Amino acid sequence: MNSRLLPSVAILLAIAVFFVYVNRTWAGSIAEINTKIESDQAALDVAANFMKQQSELEAEKQQIKPEDMAKLNLLLPTSVDNVHLILDLNALAAKSGLSLSNIDVTPPSQSNASSNTDSAVSSDSNPVGSVDLSLSAVGTYTAVQTFLTSVEKSQRLLDIQDLTLKGSDTGVYSYDMKIRLYWLH
C-alpha cells in the first residue's frame, strides 16, 4: 500500500506546489519581468534606429560645403543676435537714404497682432523661434522702397509684418514697421 500511496501523495504535492507557488510566480512577477524586458527591448530598438538616423544625418551634414553651411547659418542663425541685426538694418537703411529710430524688440507672444500662423511659429514644439522688431523710420517713398528691396534680398530670414505710412506735404514720410526675424532654438 505504501508503494501506491507515496507516488500518489508525491503527484498531489507536485500539483499543489505548481498551483500554489510556480503558477503564481510564473504568471505574476516573471510575466511582469518578461513584459518589462520586451518594452525595454523595444526602447533599445528605437534608440538604435535613432542612432542610425542620427549618424546618417551627420554624414549628410558633413557633405555640405562650409560656405553653404555659413550661408545657412546666416539665413537661420542659432541665436537671436539683436545687436547684429539692428546694425545690419541700420546699414541697409543708411544705404537707402532712410533714417531709423525707436527700435524695440518684443517676443511675438507679447505683440498685439497674433494670428493662427503667428502662434504656430512661437509654439514650444517648433524648433524655429521668432522675435518682433518695431521700428520707426523717416525718408522718401523711394528710400523706403529701396530699403524694403534690400531687406527682401538680405541673407537673414525676415518678414515685414506691418507697415504704416504717415503722410507729409514735403515728400519726406514717417514710417512705422514691424519686422519678424526667425532663429533656430
Secondary structure elements and their pairing?
Layout: H1 2-62, H2 66-75, H3 82-96, E1 99-106, H4 116-121, E2 128-139, H5 141-153, E3 158-166, E4 173-184
Antiparallel strand pairs: 1-2, 2-4, 3-4
Describe the overall structure.
The protein is of the alpha+beta class. Helices cover 57% and strands 22% of the residues. Strands 1-2-4-3 form a four-stranded antiparallel β-sheet. The protein is rod-shaped. The N and C termini lie far apart (85 Å).
| CATH architecture verdict of the largest domain | 2-Layer Sandwich
CATH H-tier superfamily of the largest domain: Ribosomal protein S6/Translation elongation factor EF1B
The percent range for helix content is: 55-70%
Computed Rg: 34 Å
Strand order of the largest sheet: 1-2-4-3
Hey, roughly how much beta strand do the residues contain?
Answer: 15-25%
The end-to-end span amounts to 85 Å
